[in-house]
Design goal:
Layout: H1 6-17, E1 21-26, H2 32-37, E2 42-46, E3 52-56, E4 59-65, E5 69-75, E6 87-93, E7 97-105, H3 109-129
Antiparallel strand pairs: 1-7, 2-3, 2-7, 4-5, 5-6
């Protein structure tokens, strides 16, 4: 019987490590190079009457920054009926942007503990099942 490889076990552990990430709102970068380097999943827009609206994308396909606006081509989240999300183009004036939604590693103790447990478990399993028996 063929034993699973180390990479197969690592790939099985990776989805569990995805729980160590969180989505946070960060301020809009001030300069063009910082804006171009920002990988975001949504924007927070200030409303005219007060308050804020969060626009979330499952995937940002293209983001174009100009000195006065942000143009985003992205896929909206899937509908409740199972239909895939719609691909839309949205233009946001920079003066109305309150922040960007970015995905980043959660440095909390719980995330570190969970990540560490899964990495150690994956390493132990990989070393045991990929070794050779000493018959």
């Amino acid at each position: 019987m063929k034993k699973p490889g180390r990479l197969a076990i690592l790939f099985a552990a990776v989805p569990f490590l995805g729980g160590c990430f969180t989505v946070a709102t960060v301020p809009v970068p001030a300069t063009a190079p910082e804006r171009e380097d920002t990988d975001f999943q949504g924007v927070v827009v200030r409303q005219v009457g007060g308050g804020e609206e969060t626009v979330v994308f499952d995937e940002v396909l293209e983001a174009t920054w100009t000195p006065t606006s942000l143009s985003v081509v992205g896929q909206l989240p899937a509908m409740d009926d199972g239909a895939p999300g719609e691909t839309v183009t949205r233009l946001f004036p920079i003066s109305t942007l309150a922040g960007l939604r970015v995905r980043k590693l959660d440095a909390g103790k719980t995330s570190a503990l969970v990540g560490g447990v899964f990495l150690v478990a994956a390493a132990i399993i990989a070393s045991q099942v990929s070794g050779t028996a000493g018959y």
